[in-house]
Design a protein that fits this description.
Length: 140
């Protein structure tokens, strides 16, 4: 349990030092709302979520593709990473992510829409096809 809280503290501190921070609405590791953070990582980025609801979910996806789509204000991204859920049961899995986001030129705001299916490995092995979400973030 001590390791869980150390990991949670590390994720929260990294979210607080993120280049973008906001809210994700939609399915996130068994919950419907999350604190959403993005920060640079060796030329790509990490897209992390801390979700709340019946339990606590943690996602940290490495977006290895982050490219402009035509106009520089519209970007697309794809990535993969671990997902966990701590509630009545513990779940551990791997999530994929593909999405679009629009960066406003006149305001430090990003709005994105993504799809995040998850392959749950622990507690029960299954594939969750859900995971659509709307992201609204502030750029620091």
């Amino acid at each position: 349990m001590k390791t869980f809280f150390m990991g949670l503290a590390l994720l929260v501190s990294s979210l607080l030092s993120a280049q973008e921070i906001g809210i994700r609405f939609g399915e996130v590791s068994g919950n419907n709302i999350a604190v959403d953070g993005v920060f640079d990582f060796n030329g790509s980025r990490i897209h992390a979520n801390l979700s709340f609801g019946d339990g606590v979910g943690l996602d940290a996806l490495w977006d290895f593709v982050y490219e402009p789509l035509g106009d520089e204000a519209l970007n697309w991204y794809a990535g993969v990473g671990p997902s966990t859920y701590f509630g009545d049961d513990f779940f551990l899995g791997v999530s994929g992510e593909v999405g679009l986001e629009y960066v406003f030129n006149d305001a430090p705001i990003v709005i994105g829409f993504d799809y995040r299916p998850t392959f749950w490995i622990l507690k029960n092995t299954n594939f969750d096809w859900g995971g659509f979400g709307l992201n609204v973030r502030y750029i620091f």
